[in-house]
What we know:
Structural class: mainly alpha
Strand content: under 5%
Order of helices and strands: HHHH
Radius of gyration: 27 Å
Shape: rod-shaped
Amino acid sequence: MFEISNLSLREKFRLNGTLSPDDIERLLDLEELPERIKSARIYISEAEGCYREESFLGLQRSALSKLHSNLRGANKETLGEIIKSINDDLDEMRANSEYWREQLYLALEALR
């Protein structure tokens, strides 16, 4: 029996008329693949749903901005720093979410 590693299982079978036990095990593992792909799709879809929408904390940010405009002195400055920190964190979270959503989309496409 010829064992040439760059042949597909189909080509090995056509060439030799049989497959090695390892090749048969690989074929049996491939039978489970569609079910594994289906499970992976479900998990990926659930993960996509966990990301926040673009408007996340929109009302709270608006309320903080209104409060900031009504304050004076050190309180206004302190709240301004807090708002800036929150906005920076939300911008970073949005950028990370976009990246990971794209990665999940690519993973789903790879499973098709």
